[in-house]
Amino acid sequence: MMPQAAAEILSPDRVSQLYSRSMQRVRCDWPGLLLCVALTVPVHVRAEQPADTDRTQVAAIESVRQEIVSVRRTGGLYDLRQVPLLFRAVDLQSQSGDLTTSAADLAYLQRVAKSGYGPDTLEYGETLANVGQWQCRIGQFVESRAAYRQSIEVFERRDATVALVGSLRGFANCCLQELAAEGVVTSADSFDSYRGPIVRTQQFSPSNPAFRVHLFRALRVDGEQALERAVELSARLDPKLRLEVLLQAGDWFLTKDFVREARRFYSQAESLARAGGATDALMNPEQVLYVVPSAALRTRHLSADESDEEFVEVEFTVRGDGRVVDEKVIDHSPGRSDVQETLGSLRVARFRPRIVEGRSIATQGVRFRQSFRRLK
User: Fold this and answer.
1) What is the structure's pLDDT at 33?
2) By the 8 A CB rule, do 350 and 356 touch?
3) Residue 374: beta bridge partners?
4) CA terminus-to-terminus distance, the chain
5) CA 160 from centre of chain
6) Mean pLDDT over residues 138-144, rounded?
7) Over the range 202-226, which residues count as b (16 or more CB within 10 Å of their CB) and which as e?
8) With CB atoms 3.0 to 4.6 Å apart as the test, which of 168, 181, 333, 346 could cross-link to 226 if both were Cys?
9) What band does 58 get if pLDDT is binned at 50, 70 and 90?
10) Count of C-beta atoms within a 10 Å radius of residue 306
11) Cβ neighbour number for residue 311 with a 10 Å cutoff
């Protein structure tokens, strides 16, 4: 059973007094609602809340943490009832920007699942895959790949092909998601999923002549190998899953500018879609690579109440190789710097092209709108 002192809501000073001799704590940043993970027992720590922290969110986090404490009191440190609660805590905490606590909870979650489920069970493999997905979402890319690798090993031993394909795809997707930490999106919902820090370096500036060299290096060889294996395994699975895997593979190679390889996967996907009656699956271009303008990155955290929205709207043609040409500004807010940044980003962007009967077709009149927030 958990020691009574560890089940209390403690101040940082009190935590230090009680556990300095018996535990090693990871670094914690104050203020915030934090969980310092020890080698043996996690300790819930409460400090001053930031003035701008949403009180409803804080209350929700506190409620989940109290549920976790209650489970530990009655069931012990490795009670499996903690698993969904810890995932819920990670979701809430990462939304509020508390990535340190989220990372600590995910590390502890792995220990709980391994102890409770056993290291060679499907449940443990599924938990590892979910942990890997969350670690990627909060910017823990090295840890995420390690969790995915472990889940892949479990699913291979258990001959769980569908789950194995999911982990292989997750591993590859995390390599793409790592670009989000540079402000480079690889799907329309990249930033909706990613909650980690974003720091744009000169390497990934659209104006950098070596931009594509750095992009190529970022798309890891092991990620590509994982995705190619997922394609191979999906051949004997549900056609809808097979379609998703083929599109993901095509997008990967188009991002790398390997157009011939991308077309091969897109053609297979289009053929499969037609056979299944999903004729609109590749009828419209889809964004697979876009460098968000620096000015938009700097203010994307601002809410609608504290900012005014400005924009640049562009019309262009997506060629069969996924490149943007014939771009034309349709409308924009005052100021030319936003226009130039948006156009510069579109010139290095890639879109999944329209595919008709196995051939990639140019699409004219594609509209794109880039928003910029300005502090009121």
Assistant:
1) 30
2) no
3) 308
4) 53
5) 24
6) 97
7) eebbbeeeebeebbeebbbeebbeb
8) 168
9) very high
10) 11
11) 14
At residue 363, the pLDDT reads 97
Q: Between 279 and 192, whose confidence is greater?
A: 192
Length of the chain: 376
Give residue for tokens 């390889």: 261
Give me the residue label for tokens 């807010």: 333
Q: Count of H helices and E strands in the chain?
A: 14, 10
Alpha carbon of 289 to those of 33, 170, 175, 208, 324: distances in Å? 36, 18, 13, 16, 11
Backbone torsion region of residue 57, taken as left when φ is above 0, otherwise alpha when ψ lies between -120 and 50, otherwise beta: alpha
Q: Tokens for 318, please give them.
A: 């997506």
The token pair that represents 207 in the structure block: 């104006």
CA distances 267 to 74, 94, 244, 250, 358, Å, are 56, 39, 13, 9, 4
Nearest residue to 186 (alpha-carbon basis) of 299, 348, 315: 348
Question: What tokens appear for 348 in the block?
Answer: 């290095």
Please enumerate in sequence order all residues whose Cβ is within 8 A of that of 229, keeping only pairs 6 or more positions apart, or say none.
168
321: nearest Cα among 373, 274, 254, 276: 254
Render pLDDT for 304-323 as a digit per residue (tens, 0 to 9): 888 999 999 999 999 999 99
Distance CA 263, CA 294 (A): 31
Q: Tell me the pTM.
A: 0.83
Beta pairing partners, 308 = 374
Of the candidate ranges 67-71, 114-118, 165-169, 306-310, the one whose mean pLDDT is the lowest:
306-310
- For residues 139-176, b (16+ Cβ closer than 10 Å) or e, as one string? bbbebbbbbbbbbbbbbeeeebeebbbbbbbbbbbbbb
Which pair of tokens denotes residue 133? 């997905």
Q: What is the rounded distance in angstroms from the CA atom of residue 307 to the CA atom of residue 301?
A: 10
